[in-house]
Design goal:
The protein is an alpha+beta fold. The chain has four domains: 31 residues; 243 residues, Bira Bifunctional Protein, Domain 2 (BirA Bifunctional Protein, domain 2, 2-Layer Sandwich), CATH 3.30.930.10; 47 residues, no CATH class; 97 residues, Anticodon-binding domain (Rossmann fold, 3-Layer(aba) Sandwich). Helix content is 44%, strand content 22%. The strands form three sheets. It has an eight-stranded mixed sheet with strand order 1-5-6-11-10-9-7-8, sandwiched between helices. It has a five-stranded mixed sheet with strand order 13-12-14-15-16, with helices on both faces. Strands 2-4-3 form a three-stranded antiparallel sheet. Helix 3 runs antiparallel to helix 7, helix 3 crosses helix 13 and helix 6 packs across helix 12. It binds zinc ion (ZN) (2 copies).
Length: 455
């Protein structure tokens, strides 16, 4: 017996020593309690805006009959290397996590390809076409300067060639913006041609840059072979000057591609949506064809900076890449991160906390037990109340009610519970009235109405 007890004491001592050592080294504080590099918690005001943006995206998707797909965060890497094109920046920045056999797993870098994977995997082609889907969530990059988690949403219409689908996409992107308070968005369009006409344009561009390519920046030099349209968005002053007289793709696209672009422009004009052709738009992925577009809005500050919130177009090559089938896709990506930081910096969404006008104040155990019943009754009627059940005395509860500037206190003890009533006290005047439980909701609703007219 004594032996056992000594051993027990020894282990306890050892554990305490280890714990102490850990604390002394500061391990617990420095390592455990820090978010990993490039990631961040969404909290406080940012969280309120985040919720608002996400719920608008969900509302609009659900309202217009889009099926939301929630794909896993981890996917096979070859899904994206097959779909993005070998020179795509998204592909180069994929965040790999593990290998299973000869298959690499990555954190999803983008959404459109996962939608197509789901469309083919769940045989959504068997449903009546087009199939409309949407997604929203976090995506990941592994860049030289560190990892990054970012938020995106996207919408896709699969299986219908009509240009009206492209208009629907632009309409949805603008509707999301206007629902969160951005009403001045405009549309910029360009074309990337189709496999038929893009080759001709590529030749023209190659010819144009033949003598000049030595003067291009290193990024543009690479892009000239893989993604020549990206040359038009380079910010390097030398590259800007070099491209002044470069041939524009819109002058070289085929009749079909031109018709597609003009139809969209005509629709937007009829719908009084401000739109213009911008030859500087390009896309990083190789699955876009014909017209590409983006929705931008100006900041309401002196800079009048244009912010790009959404971009999209025809993704007709996507399904062909995976299944060989000829199936049109129209879609867009929404940059929720950019929208949230814009809404914050422009103070477009009111994130001020408004405490409830009522404070529930039970005194004694019987009253506390009854409180939960009252809370539920009020919640069902959308009446918000504050409470602090951990505090016992009237005085300590009153302190909290004071702090949040409650307008009314709902006071009740054992006696009131027995009589099925509460004492309703106005804090500004200390006037009290006894209100029976079955009239409480009605009386509180009246008080809210009065408060609203005063405010
Ligand atoms: Zn074409
Ligand atoms: Zn450049």
């Amino acid at each position: 017996m004594p032996k056992k007890s000594i051993r027990f004491v020894d282990i306890k001592k050892k554990l305490n020593k280890e714990k102490l050592d850990r604390m002394n080294r500061g391990v617990a504080k420095k390592i455990t309690c820090q978010v990993s590099k490039g990631m961040h918690d969404i909290i406080f005001d940012e969280r309120k805006i985040f919720d608002k943006v996400m719920s608008e995206i969900n509302n609009i998707g659900n309202f217009y009959g889009y099926e939301k797909i929630v794909p896993p965060i981890v996917e096979y890497a070859d899904l994206f290397s097959h779909g993005l094109g070998k020179d795509s920046l998204t592909l180069k920045e994929m965040f790999s996590v593990k290998s299973i056999g000869d298959k690499n797993l990555v954190l999803r870098p983008e959404g459109a390809i996962t939608m197509i994977r789901a469309y083919l995997e769940h045989n959504l082609a068997a449903f009546s076409q087009p199939v409309k889907v949407f997604y929203s969530g976090s995506y990941f990059k592994d860049k030289e300067e560190g990892n990054k988690e970012f938020y995106q949403a996207g919408f896709e219409i699969i299986g219908d060639d009509n240009t009206i689908n492209d208009i629907e996409m632009i309409f949805l992107a603008r509707t999301i913006l206007s629902n969160v308070g951005i009403h001045n968005s405009t549309v910029e369009l360009n074309s990337v041609g189709c496999p038929k006409c893009f080759k001709n344009y590529e030749k023209m561009l190659e010819k144009y840059y033949k003598e000049k390519s030595k003067k291009l920046c290193s990024v543009c030099k690479n892009n000239l072979k893989s993604n020549p349209l990206a040359l038009f968005s380079c910010e390097d002053e030398k590259c800007k000057a070099l491209r002044v007289d470069a041939p524009r793709i819109t002058d070289f696209i085929c009749v079909d591609c031109k018709g597609h672009l003009q139809t969209i422009l005509r629709y937007l004009k009829d719908m009084k949506i401000p739109a213009e052709i911008n030859p500087e738009i390009s896309v990083d992925t190789n699955y876009y064809t014909r017209t590409i577009w983006r929705v931008v809005a100006e900041a309401n500050n002196e800079s009048k900076d244009k912010v790009v919130f959404a971009w999209g177009g025809r993704q007709d090559e996507l399904i062909r890449l995976f299944s060989g089938q000829n199936k049109p896709v129209s879609g867009f990506v929404f940059d929720t991160d950019r929208l949230i930081s814009f809404l914050r910096s422009q103070r477009i969404i009111d994130t001020k906390y408004r405490p409830p006008a009522f404070f529930l104040m039970p005194v004694g155990e019987t009253a506390k037990r009854k409180s939960f019943e009252i809370l539920e009754e009020l919640r069902r009627n959308d009446i918000k109340v504050a409470f602090s059940f951990g505090k016992d005395s009237v005085r300590s509860q009153m302190k909290i009610a004071d702090k949040i500037k409650a307008r009314y206190i709902l006071l009740f003890g054992q006696e009131e519970v027995g009589r099925e009533e509460v004492i309703l006290q106005e804090t500004s005047s200390d006037l009290q009235e006894n209100v029976s439980m079955n009239r409480l909701v009605k009386v509180l609703k009246n008080k809210i109405e009065k408060l609203n007219t005063i405010n």
